[in-house]
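Hi there, hope your week has been kind to you so far. It would help a lot if you went through both lines with me. No rush at all, and the record is pasted right below:

***
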Amino acid sequence: MNSPMANNARSGIGSRLPILAPDEDEQLLWDAGFSGISLFYMGFTFRGWVAYA
């Protein structure tokens, strides 16, 4: 079921929140100088990472 509100929310999130693949997220953390990177949570398109500076 696609409601107008759901479609608007999807469009709003898509335009403000870039969604990267998990390997792209991890590479950004490596490039920023973090180490010991570990994914501890994944739900829908949201992920939680643990990393050390």
Observations:
- The longest helix spans residues 4-16.
- The radius of gyration is 15 Å.
- Residues 20-53 form one domain.
- The CA atoms of residues 36 and 51 lie 5 Å apart.
